[in-house]
Amino acid sequence: MAAFSQSIIENGSDMVQDFLCSACEDNKLEESADYYCESCVKFYCRKCIHLHDQLFPSHSPHGKGDMKKWPVTKKVEDFLL
């Protein structure tokens, strides 16, 4: 399952929760995600997306400009319901 950072909503902000890079998080780093790959069901930062693109050239990750194709977090889903 995709990993997400601590919700900013919980801290009293109107901002939407941020996504963490799945590859960086596996290495115990907290790097904000810039891309989401539907094929991998994972998030990637600017550094990690280059390796992803080399390993999986047929995948088409979605950048922040296309966040409507990113999944909704469970906390946001619960909030909307």
Write the layout of secondary structure elements.
Elements: H1 22-26, E1 35-37, E2 42-44, H2 46-55, E3 62-63, H3 74-80
Keywords: Metal-binding, Zinc, Zinc-finger
Organism: Dreissena polymorpha
GO molecular function: zinc ion binding
Characterize the biggest β-sheet: 3 strands, antiparallel
Report the β-strand fraction as a percent range: 5-15%
CATH class designation: Few Secondary Structures
Number of domains: 1
Strand order of the largest sheet: 2-1-3
Task: Tell me what the CATH architecture is.
Answer: Irregular
Secondary structure category: alpha+beta
Order of helices and strands: HEEHEH
Note the total helix count: 3
Shape from CA axes? Answer: globular
Unreliable spans: 1-17
* Computed CA radius of gyration, to the nearest angstrom: 13 Å
Number of DSSP strand runs? 3
Helicity, as a percent range:
25-40%
Overall pLDDT, averaged?
A: 81
CATH domain topology: 30s Ribosomal Protein S18
**How far is it from the N-terminal to the C-terminal residue, by CA?**
21 Å
GO molecular function, one term: zinc ion binding
Keywords: Metal-binding, Zinc, Zinc-finger
Domain B box-type: 16-60
Protein name: B box-type domain-containing protein
